[in-house]
Write a structure and sequence with these properties.
The protein has 1 helix and no strands. The chain is rod-shaped. With 50 residues, the protein is mainly α. The protein is 48% helix and 0% strand.
């Protein structure tokens, strides 16, 4: 088994800021889904009366 330092292998690449990219992607996903839902409600596809 070869021992390698942090700069020699892709498995030790410096990690991005924790939570930065996933939270942004999650926010964009929720925003787009809510916009689609609002658009369907406005067009009358989804009635608001339950």
């Amino acid at each position: 088994m070869q021992i390698h330092g942090p700069g020699y292998c892709s498995c030790h690449a410096p990690a991005p800021t924790p939570g930065a990219a996933p939270s942004t992607g999650f926010f964009v996903l929720i925003l787009s889904l809510s916009l689609v839902l609002v658009g369907l409600v406005v067009q009358g596809v989804i009635p608001l009366t339950w």
